[in-house]
Design a protein that fits this description.
Number of helices: 9
CATH architecture of the largest domain: 3-Layer(aba) Sandwich
Strand order of the largest sheet: 6-7-8-3-9-10
CATH topology of the largest domain: Rossmann fold
Distance between the termini: 35 Å
Helix content: 10-25%
Order of helices and strands: HEEEHEEEHHHEHEHEEHHEEEEEEEEEE
Strand content: 25-35%
Mean pLDDT: 92
Length: 357
């Protein structure tokens, strides 16, 4: 994680600084204002539902779009501001598009060398050869993009973006066009390459699992604003609101009443840090995997209404007294169902509480 990259001392100066950046796109949507600072060698995932503004923010950083207000600095140099706008080709920022945007009439080697036109030919070819070797594409240097698989095209696009040694590489949904198994392998190889080259990167995705597993830092967006920023574990375990919680997890929502610092529900009482008056209503958010099978006879129990085997896990729907809707449970443990009933307990350390409104 990012905190481990620079030890326990003061964090380094940010390579990218975004201050109150805003952009209006028609009457129905506005991005920002957005504040964000990214450290050198950090891999940041921008995540959120479609239309939340993450790709727009990427285009503003790249210079493909111009902000209405705010400032953008790279290595202390202002790229966008009240009277400054640096064109994309002069920003020292690499970009990997969702469809890779390789030049179809150029070989893979020529694609990688495209941004090195100011280099000597010998230096450009050496740089391209090194990146093709690092991306396992050396044997395909003379091929054209249509002759490569989707994963190979993605690696070629990344090599082209890295060739000019940019200060930051931006990647817009770079794995979304790949099949699931290939996507995981290419993502792993991409992150390894970014680590190996010490590249600062911003990766846009709409996939919660991809965001949690990819970046040093995850930035969750909603309706043009940043909702929460932190490590993947921060956002998963300590979401700041219901939107953040539900984006990364599925929950059972159990109504309860606030009394003496605890939320009392039909499934027991749980710690609650909400600012509520005594007797106030709230919801306990319980993940399906926090519902654990239990052999104790005095444990909660529910009638099994549905059961679905999903390979590594099994999902059950339990009808529990006091609950209006079935309780969803996911487990890897062996189950002992007696007379159609299953005893269970709740892991209280994973229960979240949010206002009922």
């Amino acid at each position: 994680m990012a905190e481990q990259l620079h030890g326990s001392g003061n964090p380094p100066e940010p390579v990218l600084e975004i201050d109150r950046l805003a952009r209006r796109l028609g009457p129905g949507f506005a991005l920002g204002p957005v504040d964000l600072a990214i450290e050198p060698k950090q891999i940041v995932c921008l995540v959120g539902h479609s239309g939340c503004g993450k790709s727009t923010l990427l285009r503003l950083i790249a210079g493909i779009e111009q902000p209405d207000s705010g400032t953008l600095r790279l290595d202390g140099r202002e790229l966008a501001g009240s009277d400054v706008f640096v064109e994309p080709e002069k920003r020292n920022i690499g970009f990997v598009f969702q469809d890779y945007a390789l030049f179809p009439h150029l070989t893979i080697e020529q694609n990688v060398m495209f941004g090195l036109r100011k280099w000597s030919r010998e230096a450009a070819r050496a740089r391209a050869a090194m990146l093709l070797e690092m991306t396992a594409l050396s044997a395909m240097a003379d091929r054209y993009p249509h002759m490569l698989s989707g994963g190979e095209q993605q690696r070629a696009a990344l090599a082209r973006a890295l060739a000019p040694q940019p200060a930051v590489v931006l990647m817009d949904e770079p794995f979304s066009n790949l099949d699931r198994d290939l996507r995981e392998r290419v993502r792993h190889d991409t992150i390894a390459l970014l680590r190996r080259t010490g590249t600062t990167a911003i990766i846009v995705t709409h996939d919660p699992e991809e965001a949690l597993s990819t970046g040093d830092r995850v930035v969750l967006m909603k309706a043009g604003r940043i909702v929460q920023s932190g490590t993947g574990r921060d956002l998963h375990d300590r979401p700041v609101d219901r939107y953040a919680a539900e984006f990364f997890s599925t929950f059972n929502r159990i109504p309860g009443t606030y009394r003496n610092g605890r939320l009392h529900t039909a499934l027991g009482a749980f710690p609650c840090r909400l600012d509520l008056a005594e007797g106030g209503q709230a919801l306990a958010f319980i993940r399906p995997q926090a519902v654990c099978p239990c052999l104790a006879e005095d444990a909660f129990f529910g009638a099994v209404r549905a059961r679905s085997f999903r390979g590594e896990i099994e999902q059950l729907e339990l009808e529990v007294e006091g609950l209006e809707t079935p309780l969803t449970m996911r487990t890897t443990q062996p189950l002992q169902i007696r007379d159609g009933r299953l005893h269970f307990q709740i892991d209280p350390n994973t229960v979240l509480a949010f206002a009922a409104s």
